[in-house]
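input
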Amino acid sequence: MRLASRARPRWMARQTPPCKGADKSLGNHMYPVLTQAAIFVLGALAGAVIQRYADRILSWGEGRFARRRVRIRSAQLADGFDGRGFSFCGIKISIYVAVFDPRGIARNDIVTLLTDEVPEIEGCNGYEQLQDQERAYWQGRLDDNKIFNGKTLALREHSPIRHGRDERCGLRLEFTRGDYLTQRIRTGVYQKLSPQDRKSVLARPAEIAPFFSNTFGVSLAVITLDGEAVFVRRGSRTAVNTGKIVCGVVEGMGENDMRSGRPDPYMTAFRGLEEELGIRVDPEQSQAVELFSLILNTDYYEWGMLGIADFRQCRNQAVTSGYLRELWASAKGRDKYESDSIEFVPFNPEAIGRYLLKNLSDVVNYAFVATVYALLREYPRQRVAAALEPGSPAYVGMDEMRLHSGSNG
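output
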């Protein structure tokens, strides 16, 4: 008698292996999927590579044409101002423009040298009597503590240089050491020269007259983060331009304005921002400050550079008009000796034009030029000209020679 077989537990049930045909069928189905996936991945990678190089080629082409457009526009603007007295829309300024590049003159493109040569002030060109008069006056002011005889840097030589394919503008500047007392004496002599003698000094303005070149300064048009241009009225105790209006910052170059042992006009600009407005910037990281012109103030025979401090380009620093008003009210952001009041004007051709024309007799010559240059860097020439046209003809400055060779407007 056979016993009925007991059913095996399910876990002991024999697993039936898949047939070979099933393996082959599965492989036939998976191969096209894997192939398509591989093609998709390779296509995506190839597309990314092609897009990357295409973007580079396009950006290179666009950058090249953009640089060309900027270079052409810069050349057109510079050609209207370089090597002549400043004039725009019939308004003539007692400023000789040696170099102007609206693209700016980068800090690393300014090559400087400091020499120890200090020309003697005695017996130069027959100015002895005038020197004695000026020395007596300014020495008396120094003895009465009316002025401070600080150390200065004076420009001795300058020449433009060009860099790279885009022909970036650069400068080679040679400085020598001086002092404020000597500067005031020689400036006084210059201002008392006869018209014929001054005409002789300014006959070739691009060539520096060492006897009269005893200082170097930086003037900045300052624009706040909220788009306001800053104007400051000079104090009543200043030796020059008393009660006049300057744009933003005006600072003379000192012996400590050095970078790697060489004079650096950008250091003068940074120091001026801190001393006159209370704005502290990192000299190695700030992108707000840019110098764009080398000029000669023919009223005083003072060489210097013009530039801009545009804090719209440096949004990590909240330098707004409200912030500057607070600094000014607290007396933390101003040189009490040199500054008297501060004003803010919207930075656009129409508002700036109205302000400049309204205060034409009070605006210092280099401040006018720096402000107009700042406008021309950003706005079309026609719009800036239209804003200033109602003020022509006019003259800003004391220089009777009015160095001007052709209209730039």
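quick obs: The mean pLDDT is 81.
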